[in-house]
Design brief:
The chain has about 425 residues and is of the alpha+beta class. About 30% of the residues lie in helices and about 10% in strands. The strands form three sheets. Strands 1-3-2-11-10-9 form a six-stranded antiparallel sheet, with helices on both faces. A three-stranded antiparallel sheet has the order 4-6-5. The protein has a two-stranded antiparallel ribbon with strand order 7-8. It is globular, with a radius of gyration of 21 Å.
């Protein structure tokens, strides 16, 4: 059996640039005509169009764990960056279904599959897929997926609710709130959120990969994971540069637990998932929920145990969700229903450095913010997702590319470039830019 690598699950930094393809697709599908396409292409791939419907929230059970000691903290909320946030959704574009079918049908999926779904402001989904998993199942437009590093959006929002309450100060040293693990004294909460801490990325540790994934059923605590990189020197002075590090978001998970006295996933559920009625979203390895779309089946193992991956990734990359649930999340975020308008403005603003502005806000990728799209990418065993949202007109785009070999090479920390999934993404980019 090939032992998967940890970096493959949440290697968002290496796929940040392709987030812009999602917005290009939305623009193409909204503005192009099917009459411009060959008849064969226009009729090629099935498109699913669904209307929103309500469903009861599935039951959840939480595995036993020890609740950390609460650390009292009370600091002032900083002044928000004066950045304009787009107005609430106005009117949704009419997406050209034939064009969407033609684009997806052109993708050479080989052993994998491809899904592109658009959800408009009314909750209507237009989607096209190509290919299947090893069980012969196509990726469903309303299906449940491991969303990898999109988990960071949840972690950032949970942290920012504490800022809104005046419990956490964005510009205070993070070690004022964190006692369980060491945090460099100069690193602020803001540095952790926007990846300007200079802290080494734990998923780049070959020692961790070698030790962690020989036993897929092993459960990990963040202290154990971070011990693998505890002796790594800082990459740069905090606040001076940007460098994506999953370690930042494990530290934020610990911060949330220590400040609230609750488990991380309980805080996220109480403050975000529950109030928004997100019925398909849960933290894998810590909560029960519907099984995600199955992609990775090494040597025919249909029920591969992902406990080790889930628990090691935790607040940096273990969330499971669905396109409809993420549409709810985005809508609530940009309608200021989760955090204040001031913090939404900061969340959607990069940081100016001598070499230019970073393309990461407080938990959101800003690769294509100039076109009005905000979101995050993510990866897990066998697939990657790119999820974004345009506040005006209130459209969510969900892209998933799957391949059994994606992020499963035991000898490499980055198998994206030579995977079938990457070839699908590149082909899609050529189609939308031509």
């Amino acid at each position: 059996m090939r032992a998967p690598t940890l970096i493959g699950q949440i290697a968002t930094v290496r796929i940040l640039a392709v987030l812009s393809l999602v917005s290009l697709l939305a623009v193409a599908c909204a503005g192009s005509s099917a009459s411009d396409l060959p008849a064969e292409a226009a009729a090629a791939t099935a498109v699913a169009t669904t209307e929103p419907e309500s469903s009861p929230a599935p039951g959840r059970s939480v595995e036993p764990s020890t609740t950390p000691t609460s650390v009292p903290a009370s600091t002032a909320v900083p002044t928000a960056v004066p950045t304009a946030v787009p107005d609430p959704p106005s009117n949704a574009p009419v997406f050209d279904e034939a064009l969407l079918k033609a684009i997806v049908d052109e993708i050479d999926v080989q052993d994998g599959s491809f899904l592109f779904a658009i959800i408009d402001e009314e909750g209507k989904t237009t989607a096209a897929s190509n290919g299947t998993n090893s069980s012969g199942e196509p990726p469903p437009a309303d299906g449940i997926y491991q969303i990898g590093s999109f988990t960071k959006v949840f972690t950032a929002l949970a942290t920012l609710t504490l800022v809104d309450q005046g419990i956490v100060d964005l510009d205070a040293p993070a070690d004022e709130y964190v006692r369980r693990i060491p945090v460099p004294a100069e690193v602020t909460v803001r540095d952790l959120l926007q990846h300007t801490s200079g802290i080494y990325n734990y998923t780049d540790s070959p020692q961790l990969r070698a030790v962690a994934f020989g036993e897929p059923s092993q459960r990990w605590m963040p202290e154990e994971v971070l011990a693998f990189v505890a002796d790594q020197p800082a990459l740069f002075a905090p606040g001076s540069r940007y460098s994506y590090s999953n370690t930042n978001y494990l530290i934020l998970g610990v911060l949330i637990e220590e400040v609230t006295g609750e488990l991380y996933h309980q805080v996220v559920r109480e403050r975000i998932i529950g109030p928004l009625g997100m019925t398909s979203t849960y933290l894998a390895g810590f909560e029960d929920g519907p099984a995600p779309f199955n992609v990775y089946e090494p040597e025919g193992v249909a029920d591969y145990d992902t406990t080790s991956f889930d628990t090691a990734n935790w607040s940096a990359g273990a969330m499971v969700s669905s396109p409809p649930d993420l549409h709810l999340l985005f809508g609530a975020l940009f309608n200021n229903e989760i955090i204040s308008e001031q913090l939404v403005a900061q969340m959607t603003t990069g940081t100016d450095f001598a070499l230019g502005e970073s393309l990461y806000g407080l938990g959101l990728e800003l690769t294509h913010a100039s076109r009005g799209f905000y979101g995050h990418s993510g990866a897990f065993l066998g697939y990657m997702v790119l999820i974004s949202y345009a506040p005006d007109p209130g459209v969510t785009t969900f892209l998933a590319a799957t391949d059994p070999r994606l992020f499963t090479d035991p000898d490499s920390s980055n198998t994206l470039e030579d995977s079938r999934a990457m070839s699908m993404i590149k082909a899609l980019g050529e189609l939308t830019s031509s």
